[in-house]
Structure formats: C-alpha cells, structure tokens
Specification:
Elements: H1 2-15, H2 17-20, E1 42-49, H3 59-64, E2 71-80, E3 84-89, E4 99-103, H4 113-120, E5 121-126, H5 137-173, H6 175-190, H7 193-204, H8 208-218, H9 220-234, H10 238-245, H11 250-258, H12 264-287, H13 298-305, H14 315-342
Antiparallel strand pairs: 1-2, 1-5, 2-3, 3-4
Helix pairs in contact: 1-5, 1-14, 5-6, 5-8, 5-9, 5-12, 6-9, 7-8, 8-12, 9-12, 10-11, 12-13, 12-14, 13-14
GO biological process, one term: transmembrane transport
InterPro entries: BP-dependent_transpt_permease, MetI-like, MetI-like_sf
Protein name: Peptide/nickel transport system permease protein
Length: about 350
C-alpha cells in the first residue's frame, strides 16, 4: 500500500510537474552559469527581466512549460539609480562581478526605479541545488519523472499487445504456428536486451518516442511465453470445449473465454516489466541514446554529473540515482504483492 501511494503521488507529480516546479520554463531549462553546481539549499538574489514576447499562460504551458519566459540574472548586490537599477552580477568567488545597468522601461510593472526592487528582485532558493549548467535540479527531477513513468506505460502497453497476441495464437493453435512463433521468441530471447534496444534505437534514430518503441519491442518475449503456457492449459478446460461445440469462432473463444482466465501472471509480469523499462531507459539516457537534451531524464542527469562523485559533489548524481531506485523498488514491491494476491495456492 505504501508503494501504491508512492506511485500515485509520482503520477500526480508527473501530470502537474510544471505547476510544482520553481522553474516553469519548457524542460526546466533556465540556465544560470554563474551559480552552477551549487549545494542543496543554496539561495541567491535574483533579478527577473521580463521577456519581450508575452508569456504563455494557456493550458499547454500549464502541462508542458512556458516557451517564452523571463530572464533571471543572479546578482550579489544592486543599487537604485535615477534611470533604473545598477546590479552587480553574482560571481561566487569572493570577488565582485560585472556591474550592469537596467533601465526602468525594461520592467512593465515598475513605474519608478524604486518599484523594480519590490517587483523584480527577490531571493531564490534551490532546494536540491543546481546542476552543472546552473539549472534548478529540483525542477529537472520533477519534470524528469514524466520520462520514467511514460516509458513504463508505453513500453508495457506495446509488450502486452504483441506478447498477448502472439502467445495466445501460439498456445491455442499449436503445431506449425506454435513452432514458428516459438522460433521468433527464442531468437529474440537470445539477444541481450540492452544490445537489442540500442540496435533498434540506432535504426529508428535517437529521440523520445524511438526509445519508447525500442523498449516495448524488446519486452514482449516474456509476456508471450507466459501467455502461451497459460493458454495451453486453459484451452483444455470443459467450458472451452463447450464454446467450440456451440460454434463460436476461435477469435471469440480466445478473447472471451481463454484470456480472461489466463491474465493473472501477465499482470505480475507487467509490474516487473514496468520497473525494467525504467532501468533500461535510464541506461540508454546515460549512454546518450535515450531522451535527448534539453529534455530532462534521470539517467541523463546522472550522465551529466557522474564525474562529480570524485569532485566533491556526489549529490548531483546520487539524487537522481536514489529517485530511480525508489521508483523501481515501488514497482517491484507491487509486483510481489500482486503475485501473493493472485496466487490461487495462497488465497
């Protein structure tokens, strides 16, 4: 139940990610190079310069982030002048940064220089720190959960469609049909999963949807084997023989009578495949052939910062690693619970 609640929270976070993130720009990609690789809890004074283009506030920006956002400039100090604000850029090295003047006409809501500090200068805190490009790590993590959950849902859906279809056909008809499908299953099974995913990804191209399809096309084998075995057992039951004697078509018998009584193990496998899909996607992103920058991915965040483990800032790689571990563990625990609940011998 705890894992289920955790997954429900993760799903809600994935859906409303941009409403929860401090950085609501598209892909949480607001960069501040002067404050890169800062520790969790770091705070800095931020000068916000509105975009010349009107900011988006529609439904699309609520779910997918704003394409046109205000520019944020980290500053260490500022002084109000007659023409606007004179700000000293944040350097982080103990020395004063460059000073730059910002006129009042850059700030639509400020009618006087004094109102700039009230409306456009604030203290910004980074709860999980910043990455090597100065982006808010918390925002990247929250948006990145979409990739992990989406890859699980799509990959499991593709694997179920292919696996259940081929497994049911092989188990029901048997003979040469079964031999042909089992040959395909065994050939696919013999190829290492990650190697097959890499080959499919390179053939389809690097990108978001290509990874989904590639992972889904490699996870159907186990589903097909289990469904085949279940169908071979269920088709011997008397109610299936009665359905044949009534003249029902093979398609109806498989769909209405056999599959509903053979789905319990498939549900358990789906939970395990969900966890495996998350791990495979993280590995692909770590190798650089998964979700492409600037799209945030937990595997991609680890790839960008794994070298920081020996540079004194291991949290940049540990935080996404713990997130992947917790999500995969939750799915595995749910899979174990489903196995106990659907096991006839223990019920």
């Amino acid at each position: 139940m705890l894992s289920l609640c955790f997954l429900c929270i993760c799903t809600l976070v994935a859906i409303f990610a941009y409403a929860l993130t401090p950085d609501d720009s598209e892909n949480a990609n607001q960069m501040h190079l002067s404050i890169h690789s800062k520790q969790p809890g770091f705070s800095v004074t931020m000068l916000t310069i509105p975009s010349a283009v009107e900011e988006e506030n529609g439904l699309a920006s609520f779910f997918f982030g704003k394409k046109t956002t205000a520019t944020e400039v980290p500053i260490s100090s500022y002084k109000v002048t007659t023409e606007g604000v004179l700000a000293t850029a944040y350097s982080g090295e103990g020395a004063d940064g460059l000073q730059k003047g910002y006129k009042t006409n850059l700030f639509p809501k400020a009618k006087s220089p004094e109102e700039i500090s009230a409306n456009y200068i604030s203290e910004k805190k980074f709860l999980l720190g910043t990455d090597k490009y100065g982006r808010d790590l918390l925002s990247r993590m929250l948006v990145g959960i979409r990739i992990s959950l989406a890859i699980g849902f799509v990959a499991v859906f593709i694997s179920l469609v292919i696996g259940i279809s081929l497994g049911a056909i092989a188990g029901y008809f048997g003979g040469k049909v079964d031999a042909a499908i089992m040959w395909l299953i065994n050939v696919t099974w013999s190829i290492p999963t990650l190697l097959l995913v890499i080959a499919i990804t390179l053939a389809l191209g690097k990108g978001f949807w290509q990874v989904f399809i590639a992972v889904g096309l490699t996870m159907w084998v186990e589903v097909a084997r289990v469904v085949r075995g279940q169908v071979m057992g269920v088709k011997q039951m008397q109610y299936v023989t009665a359905a044949r004697s009534l003249g029902y078509t093979d398609f109806r018998i498989i769909l209405k009578h056999i599959l509903p009584n053979a789905m319990a193990p498939v549900i358990i496998i789906s939970a395990a495949n969900f966890a495996a899909a998350i791990l495979i996607e993280s590995g692909l992103s770590f190798l650089g052939i998964g979700a492409q920058p600037p799209m945030p991915s937990w595997g991609g965040i680890i790839k960008d910062h794994y070298s920081y483990i020996i540079l004194g800032k291991p949290y940049l790689a540990i935080i996404p690693g713990l997130a992947i571990m917790s999500l995969v563990t939750a799915f595995m625990l749910i899979g174990n619970a489903l196995r106990d609940a659907l096991d006839v011998k223990t019920s």
